Amino acid sequence: QSYCHRLQHDMYFLTSTSRLNEQVVDKIILQLNRVYPQILTNEEAEKFRNPKASLHTRLSGLLKHLQKKGDRHCQEFYRALQINAEELFNDLPSRKILKTPDPTEIDTDKEQYMLNDRGPVFFLACFSMAAGLALFWYCCNSETRVIGRARRILGFSPIIIGRHVRNICMLYLEDMSRN
């Protein structure tokens, strides 16, 4: 989006009551008059700084004048606005449109965060659960006779699985060995 279109979009916001005060408008006009390349000539700067005209009229005239001059002039106005009134610059409607992402576009940073938001403890817990279930399934299979070895492994693993889970597994293994 060109700066002229952005300025046209932001014109109502900027000219509404008490958005910009006279001191800030004067600073912007002086900066546009002094910047290289000179955006406003001395006569134009005096015209837009005329204290006899209302602030709304001067600001509207300045914005229309800059739109007629072209995209470079509008860009310099935005730069002057950012320097002299940064909070207002950040609240511009055109800035809010630029900040909002395209709803069809995938935000890879957000997607990466969504996949990794649980951390390494969650991964270890899931891996331990899967390993425990695999061991449990292997031990309970009627074709294998490794219950004695499994009992030894489960007996020496109080750190890996909780005490209550270990007790339940041991009880189940003992029932399996009796059958």
TrEMBL record:
GO CC, sorted alphabetically, is: endoplasmic reticulum membrane; mitochondrial membrane
Location of the CARD domain: 38-96
Q: Sorted alphabetically, which Pfam families does this protein's record hold?
A: CARD (PF00619)
> Transmembrane helix: present as a keyword of the record?
yes
Q: Which residues cross the membrane?
A: 120-138
Q: How does the protein associate with the membrane?
A: Single-pass membrane protein
Q: Which Gene3D superfamilies does this one have?
A: Death Domain, Fas (1.10.533.10)
Q: What is its main location?
A: endoplasmic reticulum
Which InterPro entries is this protein grouped with? CARD (IPR001315), CARD19 (IPR043574), CARD_BinCARD (IPR042146), DEATH-like_dom_sf (IPR011029)
The protein's location, in the record's own words, is: Endoplasmic reticulum membrane; Mitochondrion membrane
Keywords recorded for this protein, A-Z? Disulfide bond, Endoplasmic reticulum, Membrane, Mitochondrion, Transmembrane, Transmembrane helix
CDD domains per UniProt: CARD_BinCARD_like
What are the coiled-coil residue ranges? none
A biological process (GO) of this protein is: regulation of apoptotic process
Q: What subunit structure does UniProt give?
A: Associates with BCL10 by CARD-CARD interaction.
State the name under which the record lists this protein. Caspase recruitment domain-containing protein 19
Q: Which organism is it from?
A: Catharus fuscescens
